[in-house]
Amino acid sequence: MSQPQIAVIGLGATGSAVLCQLARRGVRAIGIEQFHIGHDRGSSHGPTRIFRLAHYENPAYVPLLRRARELWRELETLCGQRLLVTTAIAELGPPGGELVPGTLAAAAPHDLPHEVLDAKALGRRYPAFKIPESYIAVIQPDGGYIEAAAALDARIRAATDAGAVIRTGEKVLAIEPQRNGVRLTTDRGQIEADGAVVAAGPWLARILPDLHLPLRVTRQVVGWFEPNDAGQFAADRFPVFLLESRHGIHYGLPYYDRMGLKIAKHHHFNEVVDPDGYDMAISAADEAAIRAPLAEYLPGANGRLLAAQPCLYTMTSDETFIIDRLPGYPQVVIASPCSGHGFKFSPVVGEIAADLVSTGQTRHDVAPFRLGRFSQR
Ligand SMILES: Cc1cc2nc3c(=O)[nH]c(=O)nc-3n(C[C@H](O)[C@H](O)[C@H](O)COP(=O)(O)OP(=O)(O)OC[C@H]3O[C@@H](n4cnc5c(N)ncnc54)[C@H](O)[C@@H]3O)c2cc1C
User: What fold does the segment set 89-141+216-316 form as a domain?
Assistant: First the structure.
Protein backbone atom coordinates (compact mmCIF):
# COMPACT_ATOMS: atom_id res chain seq x y z
CA MET A 1 0.00 0.00 0.00
CA SER A 2 1.27 3.50 -0.74
CA GLN A 3 1.08 5.91 2.21
CA PRO A 4 -2.28 5.30 3.89
CA GLN A 5 -4.70 8.14 3.91
CA ILE A 6 -6.04 7.24 7.34
CA ALA A 7 -4.63 5.11 10.17
CA VAL A 8 -7.08 3.67 12.69
CA ILE A 9 -5.58 2.92 16.10
CA GLY A 10 -7.36 0.10 17.93
CA LEU A 11 -9.62 -2.50 16.32
CA GLY A 12 -12.32 -3.19 18.88
CA ALA A 13 -15.99 -2.43 18.22
CA THR A 14 -15.21 1.19 17.37
CA GLY A 15 -12.02 0.94 15.34
CA SER A 16 -13.37 -1.96 13.28
CA ALA A 17 -16.45 0.12 12.41
CA VAL A 18 -14.34 3.14 11.45
CA LEU A 19 -12.00 1.02 9.34
CA CYS A 20 -14.90 -0.67 7.57
CA GLN A 21 -16.54 2.68 6.80
CA LEU A 22 -13.33 4.22 5.48
CA ALA A 23 -12.33 1.26 3.32
CA ARG A 24 -15.81 0.95 1.81
CA ARG A 25 -15.68 4.66 0.91
CA GLY A 26 -12.52 3.97 -1.08
CA VAL A 27 -10.13 5.51 1.47
CA ARG A 28 -6.69 3.82 1.75
CA ALA A 29 -6.90 2.81 5.40
CA ILE A 30 -4.68 0.90 7.78
CA GLY A 31 -5.85 -0.54 11.11
CA ILE A 32 -3.35 -1.16 13.92
CA GLU A 33 -4.17 -3.35 16.91
CA GLN A 34 -1.81 -4.07 19.79
CA PHE A 35 -3.25 -7.57 20.42
CA HIS A 36 -5.30 -9.77 18.06
CA ILE A 37 -8.82 -9.18 16.70
CA GLY A 38 -11.37 -10.30 19.28
CA HIS A 39 -8.85 -10.42 22.19
CA ASP A 40 -10.20 -10.41 25.73
CA ARG A 41 -8.21 -7.53 27.32
CA GLY A 42 -10.42 -4.58 26.29
CA SER A 43 -14.16 -3.90 26.00
CA SER A 44 -15.43 -5.67 22.89
CA HIS A 45 -14.94 -9.41 23.44
CA GLY A 46 -17.59 -12.01 24.18
CA PRO A 47 -20.38 -13.34 22.01
CA THR A 48 -23.18 -10.80 22.54
CA ARG A 49 -24.18 -7.22 23.40
CA ILE A 50 -27.59 -5.69 24.07
CA PHE A 51 -29.34 -3.47 21.53
CA ARG A 52 -32.16 -1.12 22.60
CA LEU A 53 -33.59 2.02 21.02
CA ALA A 54 -34.95 3.86 24.09
CA HIS A 55 -31.86 4.30 26.25
CA TYR A 56 -32.78 5.15 29.85
CA GLU A 57 -29.49 7.01 30.19
CA ASN A 58 -30.21 9.64 27.52
CA PRO A 59 -33.26 10.29 25.26
CA ALA A 60 -31.00 12.21 22.83
CA TYR A 61 -29.41 8.92 21.76
CA VAL A 62 -32.50 7.76 19.86
CA PRO A 63 -31.68 9.29 16.40
CA LEU A 64 -28.18 7.81 16.57
CA LEU A 65 -29.59 4.43 17.52
CA ARG A 66 -32.04 4.50 14.64
CA ARG A 67 -29.14 5.10 12.27
CA ALA A 68 -27.07 2.44 14.05
CA ARG A 69 -29.87 -0.06 13.46
CA GLU A 70 -29.89 0.74 9.72
CA LEU A 71 -26.14 0.25 9.60
CA TRP A 72 -26.36 -3.06 11.50
CA ARG A 73 -28.86 -4.23 8.87
CA GLU A 74 -26.52 -3.08 6.08
CA LEU A 75 -23.67 -5.06 7.60
CA GLU A 76 -25.94 -8.11 7.79
CA THR A 77 -26.69 -7.79 4.09
CA LEU A 78 -23.01 -7.36 3.31
CA CYS A 79 -21.87 -10.41 5.26
CA GLY A 80 -24.96 -12.56 4.68
CA GLN A 81 -25.35 -13.28 8.39
CA ARG A 82 -27.82 -12.30 11.09
CA LEU A 83 -26.09 -9.93 13.53
CA LEU A 84 -28.94 -8.07 15.25
CA VAL A 85 -31.37 -10.52 16.84
CA THR A 86 -34.74 -9.08 17.89
CA THR A 87 -36.12 -10.67 21.06
CA ALA A 88 -37.83 -7.63 22.69
CA ILE A 89 -36.30 -6.05 25.76
CA ALA A 90 -38.01 -5.91 29.15
CA GLU A 91 -36.87 -3.17 31.53
CA LEU A 92 -38.11 -3.89 35.03
CA GLY A 93 -38.01 -1.96 38.27
CA PRO A 94 -39.75 0.35 40.67
CA PRO A 95 -41.83 3.07 38.96
CA GLY A 96 -39.89 5.74 40.87
CA GLY A 97 -36.44 4.33 40.12
CA GLU A 98 -33.90 5.26 37.45
CA LEU A 99 -34.50 2.61 34.81
CA VAL A 100 -38.25 2.60 34.18
CA PRO A 101 -38.80 6.39 34.17
CA GLY A 102 -35.63 6.89 32.10
CA THR A 103 -36.75 4.39 29.48
CA LEU A 104 -40.21 5.95 29.28
CA ALA A 105 -38.65 9.41 28.97
CA ALA A 106 -36.63 8.21 25.98
CA ALA A 107 -39.44 6.22 24.32
CA ALA A 108 -42.29 8.75 24.51
CA PRO A 109 -40.85 11.81 22.70
CA HIS A 110 -39.51 9.65 19.88
CA ASP A 111 -42.71 7.59 19.46
CA LEU A 112 -40.86 4.37 20.03
CA PRO A 113 -43.11 1.33 20.29
CA HIS A 114 -43.36 0.16 23.89
CA GLU A 115 -45.80 -1.35 26.38
CA VAL A 116 -46.02 -0.88 30.12
CA LEU A 117 -46.95 -4.00 32.09
CA ASP A 118 -47.58 -4.47 35.79
CA ALA A 119 -45.98 -7.38 37.62
CA LYS A 120 -48.95 -9.72 37.02
CA ALA A 121 -49.11 -9.01 33.29
CA LEU A 122 -45.34 -9.47 33.04
CA GLY A 123 -45.67 -12.83 34.79
CA ARG A 124 -48.28 -13.93 32.24
CA ARG A 125 -46.07 -12.83 29.31
CA TYR A 126 -42.77 -14.12 30.71
CA PRO A 127 -43.44 -16.57 33.56
CA ALA A 128 -39.72 -16.85 34.42
CA PHE A 129 -39.75 -13.38 36.04
CA LYS A 130 -40.91 -13.17 39.68
CA ILE A 131 -40.83 -9.45 40.36
CA PRO A 132 -42.38 -7.56 43.31
CA GLU A 133 -45.97 -6.44 42.81
CA SER A 134 -44.91 -2.81 43.04
CA TYR A 135 -42.51 -3.10 40.06
CA ILE A 136 -43.48 -2.35 36.48
CA ALA A 137 -41.99 -3.38 33.15
CA VAL A 138 -41.43 -1.44 29.96
CA ILE A 139 -41.29 -3.73 26.95
CA GLN A 140 -39.70 -2.53 23.72
CA PRO A 141 -40.53 -5.05 21.00
CA ASP A 142 -37.57 -4.08 18.83
CA GLY A 143 -34.91 -4.58 21.52
CA GLY A 144 -32.58 -7.53 21.28
CA TYR A 145 -28.94 -8.43 21.05
CA ILE A 146 -26.00 -8.14 18.70
CA GLU A 147 -23.88 -11.12 17.74
CA ALA A 148 -20.83 -9.18 18.85
CA ALA A 149 -17.99 -11.54 18.01
CA ALA A 150 -19.49 -12.29 14.59
CA ALA A 151 -20.00 -8.58 13.96
CA LEU A 152 -16.36 -7.80 14.70
CA ASP A 153 -15.22 -10.53 12.28
CA ALA A 154 -17.69 -9.38 9.62
CA ARG A 155 -16.40 -5.81 9.76
CA ILE A 156 -12.78 -6.84 9.59
CA ARG A 157 -13.58 -9.03 6.58
CA ALA A 158 -15.55 -6.27 4.88
CA ALA A 159 -12.73 -3.78 5.52
CA THR A 160 -10.02 -6.04 4.11
CA ASP A 161 -12.22 -7.01 1.15
CA ALA A 162 -12.45 -3.29 0.41
CA GLY A 163 -8.66 -2.91 0.54
CA ALA A 164 -7.88 -2.00 4.16
CA VAL A 165 -4.58 -3.21 5.61
CA ILE A 166 -4.63 -4.68 9.11
CA ARG A 167 -1.63 -4.99 11.39
CA THR A 168 -2.12 -6.87 14.66
CA GLY A 169 0.35 -7.41 17.50
CA GLU A 170 1.64 -3.89 16.91
CA LYS A 171 1.37 -1.19 19.54
CA VAL A 172 1.22 2.51 18.74
CA LEU A 173 3.54 4.28 21.14
CA ALA A 174 3.10 7.89 20.04
CA ILE A 175 0.90 9.98 17.77
CA GLU A 176 2.56 13.10 16.40
CA PRO A 177 0.38 15.38 14.28
CA GLN A 178 2.43 16.96 11.47
CA ARG A 179 1.61 19.99 9.36
CA ASN A 180 0.02 17.84 6.67
CA GLY A 181 -0.65 14.54 8.31
CA VAL A 182 0.30 12.41 11.24
CA ARG A 183 3.26 10.25 12.24
CA LEU A 184 2.72 7.18 14.36
CA THR A 185 5.58 5.56 16.20
CA THR A 186 4.88 1.92 16.89
CA ASP A 187 6.90 -0.84 18.53
CA ARG A 188 7.76 -1.94 14.96
CA GLY A 189 8.61 1.38 13.32
CA GLN A 190 6.89 4.45 11.96
CA ILE A 191 3.73 4.97 9.94
CA GLU A 192 2.97 8.21 8.10
CA ALA A 193 -0.63 8.93 7.14
CA ASP A 194 -2.75 11.87 6.11
CA GLY A 195 -4.91 11.48 9.20
CA ALA A 196 -5.74 9.15 12.08
CA VAL A 197 -8.68 7.95 14.14
CA VAL A 198 -7.84 7.00 17.71
CA ALA A 199 -10.19 4.24 18.87
CA ALA A 200 -8.06 2.94 21.72
CA GLY A 201 -10.89 2.42 24.23
CA PRO A 202 -9.49 1.90 27.74
CA TRP A 203 -6.01 2.97 26.54
CA LEU A 204 -7.21 6.32 25.17
CA ALA A 205 -5.92 8.50 28.01
CA ARG A 206 -2.60 6.67 27.91
CA ILE A 207 -2.01 7.26 24.20
CA LEU A 208 -3.06 10.93 24.34
CA PRO A 209 -1.71 11.96 27.79
CA ASP A 210 -1.53 15.70 27.01
CA LEU A 211 -5.32 15.92 26.73
CA HIS A 212 -5.79 14.98 30.42
CA LEU A 213 -9.05 13.23 29.54
CA PRO A 214 -11.37 12.62 32.52
CA LEU A 215 -11.65 8.88 31.94
CA ARG A 216 -12.15 6.08 34.44
CA VAL A 217 -11.43 2.54 33.30
CA THR A 218 -13.42 0.10 35.42
CA ARG A 219 -13.41 -3.68 35.72
CA GLN A 220 -16.68 -5.43 34.88
CA VAL A 221 -17.70 -9.08 35.08
CA VAL A 222 -20.19 -11.05 32.97
CA GLY A 223 -21.43 -14.53 33.87
CA TRP A 224 -23.41 -17.30 32.17
CA PHE A 225 -25.67 -19.38 34.42
CA GLU A 226 -27.29 -22.75 33.88
CA PRO A 227 -31.09 -22.49 33.96
CA ASN A 228 -33.21 -25.40 35.21
CA ASP A 229 -35.15 -25.38 31.91
CA ALA A 230 -33.20 -23.92 29.00
CA GLY A 231 -36.36 -23.87 26.85
CA GLN A 232 -38.06 -21.38 29.17
CA PHE A 233 -35.18 -18.96 28.62
CA ALA A 234 -34.83 -19.45 24.87
CA ALA A 235 -34.68 -16.27 22.76
CA ASP A 236 -38.08 -16.94 21.18
CA ARG A 237 -39.76 -17.06 24.63
CA PHE A 238 -37.65 -14.89 26.88
CA PRO A 239 -36.43 -11.31 26.27
CA VAL A 240 -33.25 -9.41 26.80
CA PHE A 241 -33.73 -7.61 30.13
CA LEU A 242 -32.57 -4.83 32.40
CA LEU A 243 -33.60 -5.09 36.04
CA GLU A 244 -33.30 -2.41 38.69
CA SER A 245 -33.59 -3.75 42.23
CA ARG A 246 -32.08 -3.39 45.67
CA HIS A 247 -29.03 -5.14 44.16
CA GLY A 248 -28.40 -2.39 41.56
CA ILE A 249 -29.07 -2.48 37.81
CA HIS A 250 -28.44 -5.86 36.22
CA TYR A 251 -28.76 -6.77 32.55
CA GLY A 252 -29.13 -10.13 30.90
CA LEU A 253 -29.75 -12.09 27.74
CA PRO A 254 -31.74 -15.22 26.91
CA TYR A 255 -30.14 -18.66 26.94
CA TYR A 256 -27.38 -18.56 24.33
CA ASP A 257 -25.92 -21.39 22.30
CA ARG A 258 -25.31 -23.79 25.21
CA MET A 259 -23.37 -21.06 27.07
CA GLY A 260 -26.23 -20.32 29.48
CA LEU A 261 -28.19 -17.26 30.53
CA LYS A 262 -25.97 -14.17 30.58
CA ILE A 263 -26.19 -11.70 33.44
CA ALA A 264 -24.01 -8.85 34.71
CA LYS A 265 -24.28 -5.95 37.09
CA HIS A 266 -23.99 -2.55 35.40
CA HIS A 267 -20.77 -0.94 36.78
CA HIS A 268 -20.09 -4.07 38.89
CA PHE A 269 -17.89 -2.78 41.77
CA ASN A 270 -17.02 0.41 39.88
CA GLU A 271 -13.40 -0.50 40.52
CA VAL A 272 -10.89 1.67 38.66
CA VAL A 273 -8.13 -0.45 37.12
CA ASP A 274 -5.07 -0.24 34.91
CA PRO A 275 -5.98 -1.73 31.50
CA ASP A 276 -2.49 -3.24 31.31
CA GLY A 277 -2.73 -5.08 34.60
CA TYR A 278 -6.09 -5.87 36.17
CA ASP A 279 -7.37 -9.02 37.81
CA MET A 280 -8.68 -11.44 35.17
CA ALA A 281 -9.60 -14.11 37.76
CA ILE A 282 -13.24 -14.31 38.83
CA SER A 283 -13.70 -14.21 42.61
CA ALA A 284 -16.54 -15.44 44.82
CA ALA A 285 -17.47 -11.78 45.37
CA ASP A 286 -17.71 -11.26 41.59
CA GLU A 287 -20.03 -14.23 41.28
CA ALA A 288 -22.15 -13.11 44.23
CA ALA A 289 -22.62 -9.63 42.68
CA ILE A 290 -23.83 -10.92 39.33
CA ARG A 291 -25.88 -13.76 40.79
CA ALA A 292 -27.64 -11.57 43.40
CA PRO A 293 -30.96 -10.90 41.61
CA LEU A 294 -31.39 -14.43 40.24
CA ALA A 295 -32.64 -16.11 43.42
CA GLU A 296 -35.30 -13.45 43.98
CA TYR A 297 -36.42 -12.45 40.49
CA LEU A 298 -35.36 -15.25 38.12
CA PRO A 299 -35.16 -18.37 40.30
CA GLY A 300 -35.25 -20.70 37.30
CA ALA A 301 -31.92 -19.29 36.11
CA ASN A 302 -30.17 -19.50 39.47
CA GLY A 303 -28.13 -22.57 38.57
CA ARG A 304 -24.43 -23.31 38.20
CA LEU A 305 -22.09 -20.58 36.97
CA LEU A 306 -20.97 -22.03 33.64
CA ALA A 307 -18.55 -19.32 32.54
CA ALA A 308 -17.51 -15.80 33.52
CA GLN A 309 -15.31 -13.13 32.00
CA PRO A 310 -13.95 -9.74 33.01
CA CYS A 311 -14.25 -6.79 30.62
CA LEU A 312 -13.56 -3.03 30.83
CA TYR A 313 -15.77 0.05 30.77
CA THR A 314 -14.16 3.39 29.88
CA MET A 315 -16.29 6.02 31.60
CA THR A 316 -16.20 9.74 30.86
CA SER A 317 -17.19 12.11 33.67
CA ASP A 318 -20.62 12.69 32.06
CA GLU A 319 -21.00 9.06 30.96
CA THR A 320 -21.28 9.84 27.27
CA PHE A 321 -18.98 9.52 24.29
CA ILE A 322 -16.06 11.52 22.99
CA ILE A 323 -16.20 11.90 19.21
CA ASP A 324 -14.22 14.90 18.06
CA ARG A 325 -11.22 16.25 16.21
CA LEU A 326 -8.09 16.98 18.22
CA PRO A 327 -7.79 20.66 19.17
CA GLY A 328 -5.45 22.29 16.63
CA TYR A 329 -5.09 19.04 14.63
CA PRO A 330 -8.31 18.35 12.71
CA GLN A 331 -6.66 15.44 10.89
CA VAL A 332 -6.77 13.42 14.14
CA VAL A 333 -10.15 12.21 15.39
CA ILE A 334 -10.94 10.59 18.73
CA ALA A 335 -13.74 8.02 18.75
CA SER A 336 -14.51 6.67 22.17
CA PRO A 337 -17.95 5.17 22.36
CA CYS A 338 -17.87 3.27 25.62
CA SER A 339 -19.26 4.63 28.87
CA GLY A 340 -20.62 1.13 29.28
CA HIS A 341 -22.98 1.13 26.32
CA GLY A 342 -21.02 1.71 23.12
CA PHE A 343 -21.26 -1.52 21.17
CA LYS A 344 -24.73 -0.95 19.78
CA PHE A 345 -23.68 2.55 18.66
CA SER A 346 -20.45 1.45 17.03
CA PRO A 347 -21.69 1.48 13.41
CA VAL A 348 -22.89 5.06 13.66
CA VAL A 349 -19.83 6.16 15.62
CA GLY A 350 -17.79 4.59 12.83
CA GLU A 351 -19.77 6.60 10.29
CA ILE A 352 -19.28 9.85 12.22
CA ALA A 353 -15.56 9.33 12.77
CA ALA A 354 -15.08 8.47 9.09
CA ASP A 355 -17.02 11.63 8.13
CA LEU A 356 -14.96 13.84 10.45
CA VAL A 357 -11.54 12.52 9.48
CA SER A 358 -12.23 12.59 5.75
CA THR A 359 -14.40 15.72 5.34
CA GLY A 360 -14.28 17.55 8.70
CA GLN A 361 -18.10 17.44 8.86
CA THR A 362 -20.92 15.08 9.68
CA ARG A 363 -24.70 15.29 9.38
CA HIS A 364 -25.08 13.82 12.88
CA ASP A 365 -25.39 16.03 15.94
CA VAL A 366 -22.06 15.57 17.69
CA ALA A 367 -22.22 18.65 19.92
CA PRO A 368 -22.73 16.55 23.10
CA PHE A 369 -19.61 14.52 22.32
CA ARG A 370 -17.10 17.36 21.86
CA LEU A 371 -13.89 17.51 23.84
CA GLY A 372 -14.48 21.17 24.73
CA ARG A 373 -17.18 20.20 27.24
CA PHE A 374 -14.54 19.03 29.69
CA SER A 375 -12.56 22.29 29.65
CA GLN A 376 -15.75 24.33 30.21
CA ARG A 377 -16.27 22.84 33.68
C1 LIG B 1 -19.14 -6.38 30.42
C2 LIG B 1 -19.54 -5.41 29.35
C3 LIG B 1 -20.83 -5.47 28.85
C4 LIG B 1 -21.25 -4.56 27.89
N5 LIG B 1 -22.50 -4.66 27.39
C6 LIG B 1 -22.88 -3.83 26.41
C7 LIG B 1 -24.16 -4.00 25.80
O8 LIG B 1 -24.91 -4.91 26.17
N9 LIG B 1 -24.50 -3.16 24.80
C10 LIG B 1 -23.66 -2.19 24.35
O11 LIG B 1 -24.04 -1.46 23.45
N12 LIG B 1 -22.44 -2.01 24.90
C13 LIG B 1 -22.04 -2.80 25.91
N14 LIG B 1 -20.81 -2.66 26.46
C15 LIG B 1 -19.94 -1.58 26.02
C16 LIG B 1 -19.22 -1.93 24.73
O17 LIG B 1 -18.84 -3.27 24.71
C18 LIG B 1 -18.06 -0.99 24.57
O19 LIG B 1 -18.56 0.33 24.59
C20 LIG B 1 -17.31 -1.19 23.27
O21 LIG B 1 -16.95 -2.54 23.10
C22 LIG B 1 -16.06 -0.30 23.28
O23 LIG B 1 -15.29 -0.61 22.14
P24 LIG B 1 -13.94 0.17 21.84
O25 LIG B 1 -13.55 -0.24 20.47
O26 LIG B 1 -14.10 1.61 22.15
O27 LIG B 1 -12.91 -0.38 22.93
P28 LIG B 1 -12.05 -1.74 22.87
O29 LIG B 1 -12.88 -2.87 22.49
O30 LIG B 1 -11.31 -1.86 24.16
O31 LIG B 1 -11.04 -1.48 21.69
C32 LIG B 1 -9.92 -0.64 21.80
C33 LIG B 1 -8.82 -1.34 21.08
O34 LIG B 1 -7.70 -0.49 20.94
C35 LIG B 1 -6.54 -1.29 21.07
N36 LIG B 1 -5.44 -0.40 21.44
C37 LIG B 1 -5.41 0.40 22.53
N38 LIG B 1 -4.24 1.09 22.56
C39 LIG B 1 -3.55 0.71 21.47
C40 LIG B 1 -2.28 1.06 20.97
N41 LIG B 1 -1.49 1.94 21.62
N42 LIG B 1 -1.84 0.49 19.83
C43 LIG B 1 -2.64 -0.41 19.17
N44 LIG B 1 -3.86 -0.79 19.61
C45 LIG B 1 -4.31 -0.23 20.75
C46 LIG B 1 -6.92 -2.26 22.17
O47 LIG B 1 -6.08 -3.38 22.23
C48 LIG B 1 -8.35 -2.57 21.83
O49 LIG B 1 -8.46 -3.70 20.99
C50 LIG B 1 -20.35 -3.56 27.43
C51 LIG B 1 -19.05 -3.51 27.93
C52 LIG B 1 -18.64 -4.43 28.87
C53 LIG B 1 -17.24 -4.38 29.39
Answer: D-Amino Acid Oxidase; Chain A, domain 2 (3.30.9)
